[in-house]
Amino acid sequence: MKKFLILALLILFQFCSFGQGRVVINEYLPWASSGCNTTTEFVELYNFGPGPVNIGCYILTEGDFSITIPSNTILQPGQYYLISGQDILPKGCGNLDSAVHVSLNWTTCNCTSGTIPTNNDGLFTDGGNGNEQVVLLDPNLNVVDALVRDPSATEASAFIQTSTLNGNCTSRSFDLDLINIPYETAVGQSTGRGNSFARIIDGDCKWIKESTQSANAPNYSLGDAASISYELTITNSMECNNSKGAISINVIATSYTDIFPMNYTLAYDADNNQLFSSSDQYTSGVDNTPSRIDINDLKAGNYRITLFTPQACNSKTFDFQILECSTVLPVHILSFKHLKTEDNKQSFSWAISEVESVRTILLEQSNHNSGFTTAFHQTIDDRSSGTQTFSAVIPASEARFFRLRITLKNGNVIYSGIISTHSSISVTASKLWPNPAKGSITIQPGTPLPSQLSYKIYNLQNSLVEQGDLHIGSNQYNFTLPVHHLSKGFYQVFIYSVDNFKPISLRFVKD
């Protein structure tokens, strides 16, 4: 009967416009673990950014039931949204590390097309033959994301009538079997009890059957490389006179057939508050030519860019800054330390000079030394001055890499080095003087120096103007580089060492 209805109901689904952010189905568990309830099945959504997305009245379906997300639900960039059949998933049922609070409980939300069973199969069909699709639709039935474990998906029920959520959402009617949906294939292997299906890395196109389910947290698949990788280079870091900032992103892949044209959303922090919200500016773009994406004419300010392929996955987000043409600021991060982890809390301290130039301090965290998010925020009192010491205590988490993001009152941003809570490394003062410089500069990296260092100096156009090696004596804490031969202007010097977690970067002016 359904085959004949296809001619009467020909609905061609297209991936919807993502606007300010990119929402994906990031992980789902179709068959609860032994010892866990049927209602611990879950679907995890993730907003890859760059900005927030209103997912209110979005519809999640596996073909037999639909679940409508309450109106005006805002999913921030980097935030997860967990949909399941109970309020809290016990440790080991949704996440191996901890109990997880659910964002939307389909058993009690009064937001489903019918009563989803709380035993036996539950929402998804159990066992090796279970092969139901998972589809996320926007309020107008445009496909946001769609995947299936195997191309031969389980036949869906007849027409589904979605919930209005007491009149707050428009009811929609559809049958997945009558719709041409561009499915992403999750994996080609049978399901198993307690195994979720997860993207290799949050936002990636590649899926695996994952025994270490990680609801409401980054996926565990750390041993697998992303399908493709990206490298961002700031080709012009400042806006000076008629010269605007510019970036170039290199896309690295074995084949570019299915990758280009590459899509991206560029966010500009219009209100300069270090947050990307609906009040900021967002520009969508498409680049048709492998393997680089070049973006020019960027004015000074803070930016975030999210890239994704035509399949609406392989996502990657970068934060970067274009500086105003101004002198180097006197603020220094004198120290930055992880003090201890105790009672599920982590303690940090840091010292900063010239705090009268500082507007805000963010302590940022990351699981994989990329995609940092805010763990602690502090606004500096206008009456503050001189050198001050600060501290923060945050809940312990999976994050192991931390840095400071300091926003100055003129809008510029400086970062500390990155420290790891899995080592005893701390960051102390990195200084450069005199600045502006005439004949030479002296650099104090702030930690005891190894016997061998290398350095590179770049100009404003990100061109390498000088490089070399340095041999350091015992108990030496600073060194001098000649700059008398450089033209007047702005420069950035990088100091490299095999003992450093990341290169030390300092800016200076040649007078």
UniProtKB/TrEMBL annotation:
Stored SUPFAM superfamilies: Lamin A/C globular tail domain (SSF74853)
Record InterPro entries: Lamin_tail_dom, Lamin_tail_dom_sf, Secre_tail
Domain LTD, first and last residues per copy: 9-153
Pfam families, alphabetized: LTD, Por_Secre_tail
Protein name per UniProt: Lamin tail domain-containing protein
Organism ancestry: Bacteria, Pseudomonadati, Bacteroidota, Chitinophagia, Chitinophagales
